[in-house]
């Protein structure tokens, strides 16, 4: 006579003699919540990432927008409105690429990744947790930036569904691309201590050549061509198509918003980040072998 199966313990998913782990997606969600708690505990880093785009927008709007100065042919566009798209794009870059490249490098250097690798947590769930943390924190940061721009600088927000649709896909694709590139680049610094010194200059250079701090059309042609290789230029251009009036499309170097090229370049960098990341990502420090 066959013995009856041991009953499951309510709410545990356990049966006698074996355990059933949750799925990768469920573990990824749980990891995202944990990553968010740890992220917001680092108050100095959070304040910098959240405040930086807002402060830079305030500086540019105040310094360049004196006496009603505008960008472009008359009647022109107020400086706060023109520079807002670049600040949204650079905020995404800070929350995704810079944040992950530095934090993962520090976790590896402190041995956290090595210990985590010894647990049953799937690697995919760990990376899903990182991406979930980036999406949540970046959404809060972007919402604060748009609120400040609208309330303090009277920047008009998009009023059409098509504009918000463009915002959504540029934002999501840019966040995903920045995240996978941040994971891949986290293997470049030799230690957690050197990660900021290695990552931040890269982000600053990209900001200067990608039309974040300057009118992109005013940059030298060689700098424009160099910026066109990297994703930040395309994120900023995509965001300009959302927050600037249709007439501003003719100000672009190509005379077009180039949505297809934006999607293609961001998608290409997403694939590059995935391929390089899977080949170079390390769970242990270099001196651990």
Automatic annotation (TrEMBL):
The UniProt record lists the keyword Transmembrane: yes
A single cellular component GO annotation: ATP-binding cassette (ABC) transporter complex
GO biological process entries: response to antibiotic
Main location: membrane
Record GO terms (molecular function): ABC-type transporter activity
Keyword annotations: Antibiotic resistance, Cell membrane, Membrane, Transmembrane, Transmembrane helix, Transport
Signal peptide range in chain numbering: none
Record localization: Cell membrane; Membrane
Topology of the protein relative to the lipid bilayer: Multi-pass membrane protein
InterPro entries found in the cross-reference section: ABC2_TM (IPR013525), ABC2_TM_bact-type (IPR047817), ABC_2_transport (IPR000412), Nod_factor_ABC_transporter (IPR051784)
Database matches in PROSITE patterns: ABC_TM2
ABC transmembrane type-2 domain location: 44-284
Transmembrane segments: 45-64, 84-106, 127-155, 167-185, 197-216, 257-276
Entry-linked PANTHER family: NODULATION PROTEIN J
Similarity comment: Belongs to the ABC-2 integral membrane protein family.
Protein name: Transport permease protein
The species this protein was found in: Cellulomonas chitinilytica
Taxonomic lineage of the native organism: Bacteria, Bacillati, Actinomycetota, Actinomycetes, Micrococcales
């Amino acid at each position: 006579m066959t013995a009856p199966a041991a009953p499951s313990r309510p709410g545990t998913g356990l049966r006698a003699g074996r355990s059933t782990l949750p799925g990768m997606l469920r573990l990824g969600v749980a990891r995202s919540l944990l990553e968010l708690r740890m992220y917001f505990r680092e108050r100095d880093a959070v304040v910098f990432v959240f405040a930086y785009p807002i402060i830079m927008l305030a500086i540019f709007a105040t310094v360049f927008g004196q006496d009603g100065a505008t960008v472009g042919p008359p009647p022109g566009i107020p400086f706060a409105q023109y520079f807002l798209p670049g600040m949204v794009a650079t905020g995404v870059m800070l929350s995704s690429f810079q944040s992950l490249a530095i934090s993962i490098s520090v976790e590896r250097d402190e041995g956290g990744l090595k210990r985590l690798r010894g647990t049953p947590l799937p690697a995919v769930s760990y990376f899903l947790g990182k991406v979930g943390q980036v999406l949540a924190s970046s959404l809060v940061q972007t919402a604060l930036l748009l609120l400040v721009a609208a309330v303090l600088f009277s920047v008009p927000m998009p009023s059409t569904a098509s504009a918000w649709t463009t915002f959504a896909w540029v934002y999501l694709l840019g966040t995903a691309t920045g995240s996978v590139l941040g994971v891949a680049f986290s293997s470049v610094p030799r230690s957690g201590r050197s990660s900021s010194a290695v990552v931040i200059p890269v982000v600053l250079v990209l900001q200067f050549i990608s039309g974040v701090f300057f009118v992109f059309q005013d940059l030298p042609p060689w700098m424009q061509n160099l910026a066109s290789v990297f994703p930040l230029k395309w994120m900023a251009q995509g965001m300009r198509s959302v927050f600037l009036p249709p007439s501003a499309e003719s100000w672009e170097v190509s005379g077009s918003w180039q949505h297809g090229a934006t999607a293609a370049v961001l998608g290409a960098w997403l694939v590059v980040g995935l391929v390089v990341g899977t080949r170079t990502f390390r769970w242990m420090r270099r001196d651990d072998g």
